[in-house]
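Table 4 source record.
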Amino acid sequence: MQLSIVEALYLLEKDVFDIYTVDNQKVSKANLLKLIKKEQPDINLRFSVFKDLKKRGLLVKTGFKFGAHFRAYTTKPDHTHAEYLVHVVDSGFKSTWAEISRAVRLAHSVNKEIVFAKVDKTKIVYIKFGRLRP
C-alpha cells in the first residue's frame, strides 16, 4: 500500500493503523507531524483542507502530477476522473495572474476545475477559477 503523507496522517488520526519506527517504537501523531514539518512546513494547512474535503464527502488523492496539492473526486475513481484540482494556500497568499492562468489552463486541459483552498485560523474558503470563452 502506498499512501501520501496526509493520507497516512488521516488514517493515523482515525485509528485505522499505527506507524512504527525501525526499532518497533510506536510513532504518535504529534511526533509524526514534527518529522513531516521539516520537509513540508505547510502540512497543517494541507491536512486541514484534506480533512475538510473528506468531511464534505469527496474522495481525495494527491495532485502532485498536476502541480496541485490534491485531486478530488465526487464519485469512485474507477468510474470517473477527478473533477477538481485543489491547491492549498494560506490567507496571505499572493500570486500573479500568469500563475493563476497557468493553473486554470492546466486544469482545463485535463478536464478538471482548479480550486484554491485559502486557509486562515478559523475557516477554509474555496475559490474556483475557470476559463471563459466569449
